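Progress note, project year one: complex with coenzyme A.
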Amino acid sequence: MVVTLMPGDGPRLRAIRLRALADAPDAFATTLAEARAWSDARWEEQVATLPTFVWHEHGADLGMVRGAPRDGDPEAGYLISLWVAPEARGRGVGAALVHAVVAWARAEGLRRLFLDVGARNDAAQALYARLGFAVSGVTGTLPAPRERVCEVEMVLELGKA
Ligand SMILES: CC(C)(COP(=O)(O)OP(=O)(O)OC[C@H]1O[C@@H](n2cnc3c(N)ncnc32)[C@H](O)[C@@H]1OP(=O)(O)O)[C@@H](O)C(=O)NCCC(=O)NCCS
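Model obtained:
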């Protein structure tokens, strides 16, 4: 089931996020080395400022996703940090986590939800497209030294989905 992390859940966020960064480094701008160095207070601050949803099953956290504001655009938000543990993939956990962020965005009154996904990340792109996200035409890369990883922006119009 999807659960929302609460104040005090910084260690829980740290554990699953470090697992995600180790498993799928090219899917995220933050590196495992960077995140490992963060203080406990920084993880707590992230829990406090970003809505964070975790897939919890049989006593284990097996997936996560977060919502975030889009700088300079009060009507839009971002979906970030989506990851599902390899042993839990292919049975709808990713879709359930995306739905949690979409519900958050709607509750916030946002009109659009953006995300960046690897240009070669077929599994994630297929998932997002199935859930109504469309390629916006904006492209970019991960920060140096991983500029080789190209990303495409996708957007969900919340009025239509
Ligand atoms: C992308 C990810 C979150 C999907 O999680 P999941 O729990 O497997 O997602 P779901 O089970 O809800 O759906 C997966 C869909 O992708 C499809 N899929 C899986 N591998 C695929 C591939 N290589 N190419 C195309 N589609 C693929 C499945 O068929 C499924 O679609 P279906 O339900 O229509 O059959 C997971 O693979 C993951 O964590 N990857 C590593 C991190 C990552 O890439 N995060 C995204 C960052 S933008």
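DSSP finds five helices and seven strands in the chain.
The two ends are 23 Å apart (CA to CA).
No further modelling is planned for this target in the current period.
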